[in-house]
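Is guanosine-5'-monophosphate placement plausible here? Inputs below.
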Amino acid sequence: MVSGPSGAGKDTVIESLRSYEPDLEYCVSVTTRPPRPYERDGIHYHFTTRDNFEKMAAAGEFIETREYAGNLYGTPRRTVEEALARGRDLILKPEVNGARAIKARYPGAVLVFLTPPSTAELERRLARRQADSPEAIEERLRIAREELAALADFDYRVVNDTLAGAVSDLRAILTAERLKVARLAGRMGLRHDTGNPV
Ligand code: 5GP
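Reply from A.M.:
I modeled the complex. Tokens:
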């Protein structure tokens, strides 16, 4: 799963990653948000009404759902389970709380925290400290605390400084995870419980 604060560049990074990794499947979420001009139903999201979303949720069709900025988002259970049954790697991009919920349900899922480069800059500034007003420092500390609290639940952090760098880091993570003995054993049929969303 690639998660992280809004504006970190998840969509762009995932799109580029998928162009290098054609075997990687993408989990298309369901949302009640109206489509943006460039978005296509079934590709970017499955767009639906709130009424229908709630019916799907009541029928247990989601692994997790979230309300975000007034719209509902849900990870479809069937997409995840079918990918796992076929032994495929699946990429998801839930916001941070959704990522935590999925990890709780699938402990072997790999969580990547994607941060915008300004977070790295923030960290550098926090380390220097003396340059800012007490209010500015407090605000930065508040954001950093929130982010760091979320980070503790993640397996990797990737800074989206350049697109090429972030994609290269994600590919390295993918390679490392695919080489893990437990996962290899799963793929070789020695264990049957190791398939997990990426
Ligand atoms: P956007 O409206 O910008 O496409 O998405 C808003 C936020 O919801 C983003 O952080 C996005 O990653 C997240 N999101 C997209 N689909 C899901 C989902 O199925 N579950 C959760 N929890 N978050 C999602």
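Short version: The chain has eight helices and nine strands.
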